[in-house]
Amino acid sequence: MLKELTVAKRLILGFGAVVVLGAGTALYAAGAMYTLDGDIKELTGDRLAKIVKLNELRGNLDATARYARNIIINHADAAFVAEETRKRVALRTRNDEIVAELEKTIIRPRGRELLKVLTEARPPYSAALERAVEKAIANDGPGANAILFGEARTLQNVVFKAVADSIDQQQEVADQIARKSTETARFGLVLMSALTLLMAAVGTVVGWLLVRSIRGALGAEPGQLSIAVARVADGDLSRSLSVAPGDRTSVLANIARMQARLTGVVTEVRSNSQSVAIASAEISQGNDDLSARTEQQASALEQTAASMEELSSTVRQNADNARHANQLAGDASTVAADGGAVVAEVVQTMHGIAESSQRIGDIIGTIDGIAFQTNILALNAAVEAARAGEQGRGFAVVASEVRSLAQRSAEAAKEIKTLIGDSVTRVEQGMALVDKAGTTMTEVVNSIRRVTDVMGEISAASNEQSQGVAQVGQAVMQMDQVTQHNAALVEESAAAAGSLKDQAEQLVQAVAFFQLAGTSPVPAGLVAPVPRSVDAAIPRGTRMQPVKARPA
Prior knowledge:
The longest helix has 138 residues, at 251-388. The protein is elongated, with a radius of gyration of 79 Å. It is mainly alpha-helical. Helices cover 86% and strands 0% of the residues.
């Protein structure tokens, strides 16, 4: 069970047990001393004082009786009587004070009972003495003697017996207290002696157990452990430690296990530190080469970024031109559509003109028929006027004029009909041309629409191409930034590799501090500088393998 506790807890437990026993002994001794002190105080300050006061009271009572007898004997001497009376009165006053003090201090039932007998018998006794003295002063000697040796003697015996019994009772209590104190002192002496022996035995056992448990926890003397740890601190791992068989938990066993593991680690570190130095040099050389190639790549990316910027500017200009051409094509398509609409209206107008010309021809034909009929009527009127003779001459003139007008109307109608026919022919030709022009305008509008669609696709493609080139340019810029960042990282890695090389050399020198069994110290400068070309330092067909840490 002690092995599971720490050294501090073991010491606290061991010394705590001794301290508890010592404290218990001291507390018991203090209690016993306190009890004895109380008993002594009661004996000296209470019982002895009461006995002294009771003895004083008894002496005063005896003196009072003696003064009374003296007065009775020498009652004729007034001065003597006065002096004795003064003494008797003073003693009686003192007795009253003593009784009053005893009433305050006596508390036991037996003492209170005896004190009650005393207080009840004393006044009659004093009164009997007073009557005897008065009779003596009155020259009644026989009466005085009768009271003195009769009633006064009886009451005196009661009072004196009460005082004597009180003294005996106080002495008995004092004897009990004394016996009790003696027994307490003897028992305390025996018990304190036993506790002292027990405390010594417990201290011895606890000390032996503590020494045994601490010695088992340490595995050796503290001085031996200090020497072993000092050797390890000085780098001396060549000396082995002797551990008791089966000891796996002591400090010495842990130091031995630590020394064994530290020896293995130092051995492995010493054997691999040279490889680490060579590998760090190879990493440094590779980082230098990578830094140079990264700088070349960064320069090429800068040129590519500049070219991509020019290409992006050209593509943006082409996209702007394509958008302008698309706008012009849209405007042309709108104009062509408007022209197509106008041509369609012209076609409709020409159809209306053709229809109007046909109606005019029909009207002219009607007018020509009317003129022909009018000519026939005028001819018939002239014939009838000729038949009438002179009466019909004026009618004949009118008929002749009407006929002339009818002929001219017919000729005009023929000319108009001829003109209308030519107009209708030309209108029909114009309608054919207008129809052809409408068809052509429709084809032109469709062509312009197709051109507009193509220009829209070209514009969209140019925009996409511009965006793609911009994205490529941005990607190239990002690659340039990443390459520059990589270049910086490569420089940092090269610096770290150089630092690793220096640290590897320092590691070799640091490990050389330890002295192992069967090996000699590593001389200074064991880590040779690695050549510039790592391939020249490593044999052909070999590769550096990463050093794996040995599991703990």
